[in-house]
Amino acid sequence: VGVGDVRSAQHLFLGGTGNISSACVDRALACGHAVGILTRGRRTTPPGVLPIVGDRDDPAALARAAAGRWDVVADFLAYTPAQVESALVAFAGKTGQYVFVSTAAAYDKVNGLLPIRETNPLANPFWEYARLKIACEEAVRRAHAGGRVPCTIVRPSYTYGPTWIPTGFGGQDYTVVDRMRRGLPVVCPGDGTALWVMTHADDFAVGFVGLFGHPGALGEAVHVTSDEVLTWDAIHREIARAAGVEARLVHVPSALVAAIVPEKGGSLLGDKAHCSVFDNAKIRGLVPDFAPGVRFAEGIARSVAWFDADPARRTVNPEAQRAIERVLAAWGRAWEGLPDDSPR
Question: Within a 13 Å sphere around the CA of 276, how many CA atoms are in the beta-carbon half?
Fold first, then answer.
């Protein structure tokens, strides 16, 4: 891509073909913005988007992307402070706003108060991903306070799109729906009563893109979530309803799930095992158009329909299947020798 091509766009997405970012690109285009995407070229970019092919961690690729002057640089691909710093160096003096995509898992959900507000403390001793995002936020704040780059921090909670099946445990692909349709039990971490918020990517995109170029967003951290509060039991039952079946839920303590499948432990013990109910007053004040309207029953029906539209999409992750079976087996052994009528 030549420098002249780069300068024809207004907003640059570092990553723009993923679960959340693709919806934000679509929203930016619908709002009449010119959009560029730094992408490795593995997925098709929408018509009207300027693709800049390269790896986000390649300094030469960042330099190519920074050859023009961007109104906004939205970074979906920074997970470490070093990655944030590389972007801040590349785009200093080249953008009017650097939007860092953090996570609502950064909030201290173990000791925090509800509803969650942007002023809640940040801490997550269980999940390295969240701790790194917190460190990234600190680097972003320093850059903004030091006058290096005008910055905004956005914290999504669990956000899903049409290609995503969001569950508490078991991945985001077709695996859990496959188990439900075959009448197999599905793990629901905890007792199923923790309150949670699922946000559709289309709703998130309205709030996210609405922050572009907003002077009131500079130097601020904002979470963007749905207002619909569901229990994990209700979430899994809506997935099953969309799949045309009834769910066989097995409630397993999150600590046991984490012990059996350590890679799931951080996201459970530091995030999903706790209630997540958000006060969205800040994003509403900044973006009056933000009014999340995709209820989970509708959104998950779209997701299941996407998988059902093409048999090639209905693949089962064998590693996820084995993990689910290990947890179920361990939970079954925990009940051995107890009366059959014991509460489970």
Answer: 31
What is residue 87's DSSP assignment?
Answer: H
The CA radius of gyration of the chain, in Å to the nearest whole number, is 21
Q: State the first-to-last Cα distance of the chain, in angstroms, to the nearest integer.
A: 60
Helices 81-91 and 128-145 meet at what angle, rounded to 10? 30
- What's the predicted TM-score (pTM) here? 0.94
Long-range contacts, stretch 52-59, CB < 8 angstroms, 24+ apart: 52/1, 52/6, 52/12, 53/1, 56/14, 56/15, 56/83, 57/83, 57/86, 59/86, 59/90
DSSP state of 209: H
What are the pLDDT tens digits along the chain (344 aa)? 433 444 445 999 999 888 999 999 999 999 999 999 998 877 778 888 999 999 999 999 999 999 878 999 999 999 999 999 999 999 999 999 999 999 999 999 998 789 999 999 999 999 999 999 999 999 999 999 999 999 999 999 999 999 999 998 877 899 999 999 999 999 999 999 999 999 999 999 999 999 999 999 999 999 999 999 999 999 999 999 999 999 999 999 999 999 999 999 999 999 999 999 999 999 999 999 999 999 999 999 999 999 999 999 999 999 999 999 999 999 999 988 777 766 66
Q: Shortest CA distance to 56 belongs to which of 6, 15, 22?
A: 15
Contacts 24+ apart (CB under 8 A), 319-322: 320/170, 320/171, 320/173, 320/175, 321/175, 321/179
30: helix, strand or coil: helix
CB atoms within 10 A of CB 53: 14
Q: Give φ, ψ of 329 to 5 degrees.
A: -65, -45
Please provide residue 40's backbone torsions phi and psi, each rounded to the nearest 5 degrees: -80, -5
**Burial of 297 from C-beta contacts in 10 A (0-12 / 13-18 / 19+):** middle
